[in-house]
Structures are given as structure tokens and as C-alpha cells.
Amino acid sequence: MLRAEERQLLDAVTLDRPWELITTFSTLKREHPNDVRRAAEHIERHLRELGIPVEIHQPELFLSLPGQASVSVGGTTFSAKPMAMSAIFPEGLTAPLVYQPSQYAANADDMFSSSLLDGEVDVAGKIVVTEGFGMPGKIRELEHRGALGVIAINPGARAHWGICTSIWGTPDLHDLPRKPRVAVANVNRPDGDRLIDLARAGAEAVFKTNLEEGWFVSPVPVVTIPGTEDPKSFVLLHGHYDSWDYGVGDNAVGDATLLEVARNLWNNRAQLRRSVRIAWWPGHSTGRYAGSTWFADHFALELYRNCIAQINCDSPGCRWATEYKDVSVMAEATAWAGDIIRDVTGQDMQAERPVRAGDYSFNNIGLSGFFMLLSTMPDDLRAEKDYYAVGGCGGNIAWHTEDDTLEVADRDILLKDIKIYLLSAYRTANQTIIPFDYVQTLNEFDQTIAEYGEGIGTAVDLGRVRDAVETLRTDVRELMRAARSLNGESLTSPQVRRVNFALITVARHLVQANYTRSPAFFHDPAEHVPPLPDLAVLQTLQSADDYQRGFILTHATRGLNRLLAHLGDAQVAVRDALNHLELPVKGGTS
């Protein structure tokens, strides 16, 4: 239920500044770094006119800027859109076409999580024609099988722009070998169907792709609205301001949302207990989240020590997007985020585990997070319009095309979504005790361990990890019970600080264990990460032969060690807080 000061805060939301920014961005393409810099100047101008201090970082990011692409067969040339980070062949790549059947994604999760290829056609030395989007999992598999190029047939009348690398942000030396070496482009469905026929007929094609690749200065505007009690601690609210073409639904509406949230929080900064940091990212589209990754890298220790949550803002306020389903929320934040949406809209939220996409560049630091895409189109309306799955714009298939223009934005829906983001940042920053329920995260761990353990018999002893989960859950539950008595105390209270430090420590360990394979402060690929990924290999044990079995068991042993270490270190922090609160501790030690 909204408190009086929250209602007053939300009542102050207007569309004056947001709509002005959206209108400006609807006439400003934001792909090339020169245009991106102009967009950053517009954001900065609005902030300074409002009297809000803003810091403009100027990192150099590694970006790939798509130009033109074409596929020529005989006397016919088909236009295409090259995928960012794909190989450059301006003079053309000549090879036979081959058709590799593939499924179209049923939802955004499928788009980002799976290759969806049907069977294994011999693609070595050929240009592959296949359905779907040129997403990283598909491209990596086809490149591994020897393809020279990939022509992805998008589901509709428009080809979409996109990026095909699995490398998250600017590559480091571990990532660089994964940079695609194949030409990749998207075509629309009618042209793709013709190319399938030509591939089946054994035709040869000339495949041209032209991209500009290199290091580009890319501004990162950041506003810090200081808290009055604990200014070092902060909530990070963020979204990208670069786009494909004019990108109104993805993500001018998000940029406008961040601007209006900044205005309202700045005007109410005297009521803010912790700080709120609001950031606009470049390099999302052409660098696979390069802007947010740069920030995660260069402010890593500050984020690790002081950030209590990250909230992503991408594609709010789009036409027909009247429902809150498939909302990305980590388990610990599900009830919290659901209450916020219900308090603003009266609607219930349907949550999903965050996919490895968006600007979730902070998992390897261990930040709890919620939201990515927010409001979306009802399924029956999508079916009525014969829309296919896309990764933004509230479900509008204008996503990543020339059609993502001003009419995609909806004033009424945008106003509602701005209020959700504003309340999210304000309420999270003002809670005495960090408001996330890590008991729910540990319940999820239990479910995942049970699923992975099905059918493996005594091959792996999961008893220790089950016990460790239960012990930590008992202690976290006890800590949260005790912490209720601290609500209303100052954030500088030693007991409040101890409890919040313990919860931050729990977050760092559980998020890393549940969402990452790579070490802390590095970045996992932009590919599907299953729950407790180090143990997911157990699902392959039953079908493995004797030769593979030993390798799987070795991997699982190391994964169990990592998970047990995370759980144990989290428990130490919780026990320390409990001991200093001088409350009885239930359960044994780990």
C-alpha cells in the first residue's frame, strides 16, 4: 500500500520532459558514436536545466557498426542487415548455399537462450540459410561446424538489426577468441523463403557484409542523488540510450523514464535515505552491453561494497503493453517487485528468472536485480496481430527495425511505468533493512538441486549441499525475524549496518553461485546460464557413456566445492550479524 509521501511523489510525475526527450530521439538515429554523443548531450542538457548534477564519463568502447549487406544468387540480389560483431567481407564471400532447418523462438527467453537448430546438416565450407535470428548460440554452433557465413531468416516482413557475438561487453583476452569469424546477416521472411529454395537447388551465392569496427569514445552520463543517512550505499537504476535506427520503443522511452525519475528523486532528495545512481549506457546495441560492462569494470569495488540492488529499465511505456508478465526478477526480489507493481497499477506481476541478456552486467559482482523489460502486450492480442516473439518494445515487432518510431510509445502506459520505476528506486533506497528475501533464493536452490539429482542415484552425494542450504536458510530466516525490530532506526545504527552487511554478503555469494560460471569481476558469455550452473552438468549423467562419466563427475565435484564455499561464506556473515545482535542462534555450524 502506498504511503502518503509515496503517493505525493508519484502524483508529481509528468510527461513534459520525458515526451520532449522522446520526440527529440525520434528524429535522432543513435547507432553511430557521433549520433550517440549528440544523444548524450541532449540527456545532459535536460539534467542541467533541471539543476541536477551529472557526471559524463568518456570511455573508449570496442564497437561494431553494421553497414550494408547483400546476398547475390545468379542475377538476383537480396538486401540484408549485417549483425554487429560478425566478420567483414565487403568484397564478398562466394560459397554454396545450404539450408539448415531451425525453429522460431516462442518467446524472448528462447531467442537469447538457445540455438533452436533442427538436426545437423553438413554446413562446412558453405553459407547457411536458417530460420530465426542471428543470435550467439546459433552462430557459435554453426561456426563450430565449419560454416563460412550465416543468413538468418527473420519471422516477418522486416529484417531486424542485432548482434551475434556471445562476448559480453568489450572483450578481454579470455573472450577475444570467441569473436565470430563468420559473416552473419538477417533477411526478411519472403526473401528467406526464396533463399531456402535456392539452397535446396544447390545454388552458389556471393555474400557481402560491410561493418565498421574499432574503439570509439562513448559518453556515459551518470547522476548520483545522495542519500541523507548512508550516502555511500546506493541503488543503481540504469538503461541504454543508444539504439538501432531511431529506437523509440527500444529505448528512448526508457531514457525518458530515467530522466523523469531523476527529476523527481532530485526534488525529493531530502527524503532519500540511501543514494540512487542513475546511468544511461552507450554500446548496448553495437557492443553487447559495452557501456554497462565498462561501468561494472571501472566501478567494480564500489558496486561490490556499496550497491544494494540494480534495476534495469528497457522498453517501458510501449503501445498495447498493458500486462506485467515474464518480468525479469531474481527470486529474492520477486515479492518486493510484485508489491511495487501492485501498489502502482493494481495488477499482479508474473515473474521469470532473468535471462542472460539486457544490461545485467553485474551478476559476476553479485548484485541482486529486478526488471529488464517491464510491461508487455497480452498474449491474445499478440496472437490476434500475428506477432512473433521479439526482445523488447513491449512485444511490438517494430523492435530493432525502421518501424520503431514515435507511434510505438504510449503516453498513458509510459506514465504508469515511470511511476513503477520511480517507486522502485525510492522505496528500495529508503528501506531500513535491505528488502530482499534470500530465503526464497535458497528455496529455489533446493528445487534446482532436487531437479539435478533426479535419476543419478549415489553417483554424487548432494546431501552436504542440501544441508548447507538448509542451515543458511534457517540462519537467514532468523536474521530477518530479528531485523524487524530495527525498522525505523537510522541506517548508521551499528546493528542496522551489521544486518545489511550480512545481507549484501549473502547476495554476493548467492547471485554469483546462481547466475555465473566465470570468476567474480569477469563476465559470462551472452548465452543461457541455468540455475546453479556449476551443477547443471548432472542432468547429462544418465545419458553419458563410461568415458564421459568421469569427466562429468569431476566437473560436478568442483561445482559442488564452489557452491559449498559460497554457502559457507554467506553463513559466516549471517552468523556474525546474529551473534552481534545477541540473539540465540538456531541450528548447528557448517
Question: How would you explain this protein's 3D organization?
Answer:
There is one protein chain. The protein has helices at 4-11, 16-25, 33-49, 108-113, 136-144, 189-200, 248-267, 290-298, 300-306, 334-345, 379-385, 411-430, 438-453, 463-483, 494-515, 546-580; strands spanning 55-57, 60-73, 76-82, 89-99, 127-131, 149-153, 183-187, 204-217, 220-225, 230-240, 274-281, 307-312, 327-328, 351-352, 369-370. By secondary structure, it is of the alpha/beta class. Helix 7 (248-267) packs across helix 12 (411-430) and helix 13 (438-453) runs parallel beside helix 15. It is globular, with a radius of gyration of 24 Å. Keywords: Plasmid. This is Putative peptidase.
Give a brief outline of the structure.
By secondary structure, this protein is α/β, with parallel strands linked by helices. The chain is 39% helix and 17% strand. Helix 4 (108-113) links the parallel strand 4 and strand 5.
Portion in strands: 15-25%
Report the mean per-residue pLDDT as an integer: 96
Main sheet strand line-up: 2-3-7-6-5-4-8
What count of domains describes the coordinates?
Answer: 3
The overall strand count is 15
Distance between the termini: 40 Å
Structural class: alpha/beta
Major β-sheet, in short? 7 strands, mixed, barrel
The best one-word shape is globular
CATH level-two architecture of the largest domain? 3-Layer(aba) Sandwich
CATH structural fold name of the largest domain: Aminopeptidase
Unreliable residue stretches: 583-590
What's the level 1 CATH class of the largest domain?
Answer: Alpha Beta
Number of helices: 16
- CATH superfamily membership of the largest domain: Zn peptidases
